[in-house]
Amino acid sequence: MTPSSSASVSASRQPLTADALAGLVGPGRQLARLEVTATSPSTNTVLLDAARREPDEWPEVSAVVTDHQTAGRGRAGRAWATPQGAALTASFLLRPTVPGDSLGWAPLVTGYATVMALRDAGVGAYLKWPNDVVVEAGAKAIPGWGRWRKVVGILCEMVPRSGVDDEPAIVAGIGVNVSQSSAELPVPHAASLATLGATRLDRVALFRSLVAHLHDAVAMWEADADLPRVHAAVESVCASVGWDVTVAMPGGEDVKGRVTGLSDSGALLVATRDGEREVLAGDLTVRRA
């Protein structure tokens, strides 16, 4: 890194505090409750437990953000850790007033909001179905990723219901690689805002932008009865459309083909040799992008 970029990284690792994030919480504002911690094993775990134990104390939209997450979780139980102050890690409690069959859009709506926030920060971000945010920036292709690099991971989890009449609640966890150097990134296909050349590495500003875009995206989701606006918005930022992919299904089956779009439920539509398949869940790797 150059001296100027080192100074920018150092400034970006200033501690996140409740005072720094003041002004986001209260009646008529974008957050109903915000808890800021110095460290947390997993913001998703903390918020899931809190929302389950004290649902009335955690209205929509509440958030937990930590300065340093020490044991983050990804899909399929994958671990995720970052250096002190190098990432923005936050979880949001959503109680969307949408039909139950559209709840599968949660990671995609969250991803759309995150893409918009990163674009505000000058990063050409896209959504990789179903829950990663990526940038096409690699100097060479990496198997399974091509020239795309992952800068954000998203994990959406349902809050366990204590009664059959409980309204559905979702915890949406978002982890953004902000100021990590190349040496601090855990895998070759990862990137950070710093390694992508972003000059704005302010986690406070990024969190404020993320909250605003998530607020707007959820409002669009709730107002969109048959989801045409949500469908169009998510597809417009979904880099996976047009890729030749292999999707490893939960049951062990691999689906290979070209992604043609998203279904009405947010599932991936893949044109295979045997016809179009609707993929509800799976790990997607790129064969040709």
Task: Please give a structural write-up.
With about 290 residues, the protein is of the alpha+beta class. The protein folds into two domains: about 5-235, Bira Bifunctional Protein, Domain 2 (BirA Bifunctional Protein, domain 2); about 245-289, SH3 type barrels (Roll). It contains five helices and 14 strands. The strands form three sheets. The chain has a seven-stranded mixed β-sheet, sandwiched between helices. Strand 3 (about 70-75) and strand 4 (about 80) form a beta hairpin. Helix 3 (about 105-120) packs across helix 4. The protein starts with a helix and ends with a strand. Mean pLDDT is about 90; it is low at about 1-5.
From the spread of the alpha carbons, the general shape counts as globular
Spatial strand order of the main sheet: 1-2-5-9-8-7-6
Briefly note the CATH topology name of the largest domain.
BirA Bifunctional Protein, domain 2
The domain tally reads 2
The first-to-last residue Cα distance is 30 Å
Largest sheet, in brief, is: 7 strands, mixed
Q: What's the pLDDT, averaged over the residues? A: 90
CATH C-level label of the largest domain = Alpha Beta
Residue windows where pLDDT falls under 50 for at least 5 positions = 1-5
How much is the radius of gyration in Å? 18 Å
**Number of E strands:** 14
Sheet/helix structural class: alpha+beta
Name the CATH architecture of the largest domain: 2-Layer Sandwich
Supply the CATH superfamily name of the largest domain: Bira Bifunctional Protein, Domain 2
Tally of helical runs: 5
Q: What series of H and E elements makes up the topology?
A: HEHEEEEHEEEEHHEEEEE
Q: Classify the helix fraction into a percent range.
A: 10-25%
Beta fraction of the residues?
25-35%
